[in-house]
Every structure is written in C-alpha cells, then in structure tokens.
Amino acid sequence: MNTGIDDTYKVRKWISVVEEIRHENGPDLDQPLVKAAVGVIFQNPFAGQWVSDLSPLTAPSDSLGTELGRRALQLLGGREVQSYGKGGIAGISGEQDHVVACVTSVFGDALRAAVGGGKAWISSATKTAAAGTSIDIPLAFKDELYVRSHYDAITVAVPDGPRPDELLILIGVASGARIHQRVAGLTRDEALANLA
C-alpha cells in the first residue's frame, strides 16, 4: 500500500490536528492563526533491543519529511507556512534516540523543501512514553530562530499510540505569529530584510 513514504516504515496510522485561532482575549482577527500538526505511527524495528546503528531509520527519513510536510501544507488551506517544528514519541519498548534518528537533517531538509523553504534550525521535542501521552511540538519562525513573535507550540496526543513497539513522528506548522503577540524582539520583517 502506497503511504507516500519509504516501505521501511510499516505505517499503522496517520494523525492530523488543526487549530484556527481568532483571538486570545483580545480583538477578533480578520485573518485567524492556523496551526496544524501531522503525525505518523509506525512499527519500531528496534523496539526491545539495543542496536548501535540507527541509520536504517535515518537513511529513508527524507520520505517522512516530504510526506508530513505535504500533508501539513494541505491542512493550512493555501496559507504560507511561517513557522515549523518537529518531534515525536517512542513507545516504551523503544528509546528516545529512535525518534531522533527519524528527524535528523535528512528529514529536516526534506521537510523544508516540502513546506516552501526555510533557513532556520527546526525546533524539536522527543521522548519515550506510553500511548496517549501528549507532546508539545515547538514552533519557531522558519527563516530565523530568534523571531520571538513566532515562538509557539502545538499539542498532540494519540489515545492509542504509540504502542510499546511503535514510533510516533510529528511535525507542526503555523501560518503566522502567536495571536496578539506584543513582546518586543526581532520582527519577521527585520529578519527577512537581514537575510536579503
């Protein structure tokens, strides 16, 4: 079955979360902030064992970055991706490094390409936990990490995953800055001007 990713990853399910935020106790915005997260749960080939070489998870991870990015872009409904983040959870028979092996620069470079580019390091959160555990995927401006207005997160929890022998790999994206952000710092426009 074609899932859009390399056959190395034996997929059980995909997860999508979308938030459309119109205000945060302030005035209603003309254009809402849209945040989305996309995740995939697949069998962890290294669950329950110690393996020193995790490259079998890393080598094909460009396909993960591409497909998760493609799906997230669709969830934004034509809006630009301004910020992004990545991460995931290893089921309790796995290890945090099993997730990290899936979201290295191989994954990150493909994700950037899929969502329209990005020059900044991609914020990340990973852990080992039981099914149903929530995780906050950190978000930051995709072209300059120090744009404070875009520091944010999207929370994801999957009631039946990851199972002990599974991995949950996630990305988050957002169409703009935090709602009603008003804390000083480098602005998006200043950051883009500095990059020009």
Which labels suit this protein?
60s Ribosomal Protein L30, Chain: A, globular, seven-stranded mixed beta sheet, single chain, alpha+beta, 5 helices
At CATH level 2, the architecture is 2-Layer Sandwich
Q: How many DSSP-defined strands?
A: 7
Secondary-structure element order, as H and E? EEHHEHHEEEEH
Distance between the termini: 44 Å
Estimated share of beta-strand residues:
25-35%
- Radius of gyration from the CA trace? 17 Å
Folded structure, characterized:
With 196 residues, the protein is of the alpha+beta class. It has one domain (11-195): 2-Layer Sandwich (60s Ribosomal Protein L30, Chain: A). 22% of the residues lie in helices and 29% in strands. The chain is built from 5 helices and 7 strands. It has helices at residues 55-58, 61-75, 96-102, 105-114, 188-195; strands spanning 11-21, 33-43, 83-90, 123-128, 135-141, 152-156, 166-174. Strands 1, 2, 3, 4, 5, 6 and 7 form a 7-stranded mixed sheet that branches. The protein starts with 10 loop residues before the first strand and ends with a helix. The model has no long low-confidence stretch (mean pLDDT 94).
Task: Describe the secondary-structure layout.
Layout: E1 11-21, E2 33-43, H1 55-58, H2 61-75, E3 83-90, H3 96-102, H4 105-114, E4 123-128, E5 135-141, E6 152-156, E7 166-174, H5 188-195
Parallel strand pairs: 3-4
Antiparallel strand pairs: 1-2, 2-7, 3-5, 3-7, 5-6
Helix pairs in contact: 2-4
